[in-house]
Amino acid sequence: MADLVDARIETFAIPGARVVHGKAFPLGIRVKGGQAFEDIDSAVAHIDQLAEQGTLDDLLRDHGTILFRGFPVTDASDFSRFVQAFRLPQQHQEVGLSGIRTMVNGFVKTANEEPSDVKFYYHSEYGRSAHFPNVLFFFSEKVPEKGGQTPLLSSIELYDELKKQLPDFVQALADKGVIGRQYFPSKDDPEAAHIGWNWHDSYGFDIKEDDSIEKQHRKVETVLRDRLQADGEWQDKNGALYVLQRLPALRRVASTGKPTFFNGLMGVYGRARDNQALSPPYKGLDGKYHLPTTYGDGSPIPYDTLDKVLEIADSIGFLVPWQEGDVAYIDNYMTQHARTPWVGERSLLVSLWDSKEKFVKY
Ligand SMILES: [Fe+2]
C-alpha cells in the first residue's frame, strides 16, 4: 500500500470520489497551504523526486487516477515539463487515428477538436486497437462556462459490477472476445470528404499509381495485418473497406492481478445510438458509418445488453470538476474516460505515455 508523506504536498478527498477495492478513485493530491511552489521549475523538481522514489507509480497502481491541484501549471509548455517529471519510460507513439488532434508541442496535443456539443461515451484510450497507451495526462488549461467535465470510471469497478449484474455477458466476452469494425470509404467516393478519411490515405502507403484495384487491396491488407493485426473486408457495392479488429474485451493488470474492462464497446455503441445508426447500413444522422462491434464469433451483442452496460457505467461514473491548472494522471488500463458537451471556451490538453505496467491474459 502506498502512502504520501511529504512536506509540501498532501492527498485530499475529492467530493463525489468513489471507493474501489478500499481505495479512493480518483485520489486528489494538492499543494499544502503555505507551501506554494514558486515556479514550474520547483514543482517539476519536486515531482521528479517523488517519481524517482517510485511513490507516484505506487499511488497510481492503487488508485487508478490521480488529480493534481494547485501546481503552477499554466500553459502547454508547463504541462509538457510537468509530465516529463513522472519518469515514465517513453512517450506513446500513436498508430492510426482515434480522433482529431493537433500537436501543441513535442509532448502535448489537444484532447479532441470535435464540436463542443458532441458527447463521447466511456472508452479505454485506443481500446479498439491492438496498440494503446498505458498512461494519459489531461491538463485543464481553460474551463468552459458550463459543462465540459471529464467523466471517469474505474474499469476495475465496472468489471466487478458487470460480473454481478450481467454475468452471461461477461462470460461471453471472456469466451469470444470482440470484433470491432471501422468504415473506410474509397478515396473517390463522394462521401469520403465528409467522413474525413479513406482507405487509400490511411493504409495505402505502398500503393503505386498504376496498381490494379486487386493489387491495391492486397497492399492495404498487408499493412493492416503487419501493423495492426487487423483484417480487411471489401464491400462490393461501393468499394469501401471494413477494417476488422479482433481483440479481447477483458484483460488482467499484471501488477495487481485484477481483471479490467478494457475496450471501446461503450464508445462505439453510444455514438451509434445517438446517431440512430443501429441497423444496416449503419449510417448515422451525422452522415458517418457506425459499424457495430460484435462478439468474436461474429454474433451480435444485443442492444439491450449494451444499453444496460451504459446505464451501469453511468451509475459508477465520476465527473472531474475541472479547475484551471488541474492535471489528471490516468492509468488507461484501469480507467475509462468520456467527454461531456460544454458551452463556452474550453482547452483540455493531453499527453500519452507508455509505462512499465503490462496486461496478462484474462
Ligand atoms: Fe479518449
Explain what this protein looks like in three dimensions.
There is one protein chain. It is built from ten helices and 24 strands. The protein has helices spanning 40-53, 55-63, 76-84, 155-165, 167-176, 192-195, 199-203, 213-228, 265-274, 303-316, and strands spanning 9-12, 18-20, 23-25, 27-31, 65-69, 90-91, 103-105, 108-110, 120-123, 135-142, 146-147, 150-154, 178-184, 231-234, 241-247, 250-253, 259-261, 294-295, 318-320, 327-331, 335-339, 342-343, 347-354, 359-360. The two termini are 24 Å apart. It has 362 residues and is an alpha+beta fold. The protein is 28% helix and 27% strand. The protein folds into two domains: 9-116 and 125-145 and 321-360, 4-Layer Sandwich (Double-stranded beta-helix); 158-312, 4-Layer Sandwich (Double-stranded beta-helix). Strands 1, 4, 5, 6, 7, 8, 10, 20 and 23 form a nine-stranded mixed sheet that branches. A four-stranded antiparallel sheet has the order 9-21-12-19. Strands 14-15-13-18 form a four-stranded antiparallel sheet. Helix 1 runs parallel beside helix 3, helix 4 (155-165) crosses helix 5 and helix 9 (265-274) packs across helix 10. Residues 123, 125, 337 line the site of fe (ii) ion. InterPro entries: AlphaKG_dependent_hydroxylases, TauD-like_sf, TauD/TfdA-like. Keywords: Oxidoreductase. Residues 52-350 form the TauD/TfdA-like domain. It comes from Sporothrix bragantina. This is TauD/TfdA-like domain-containing protein.
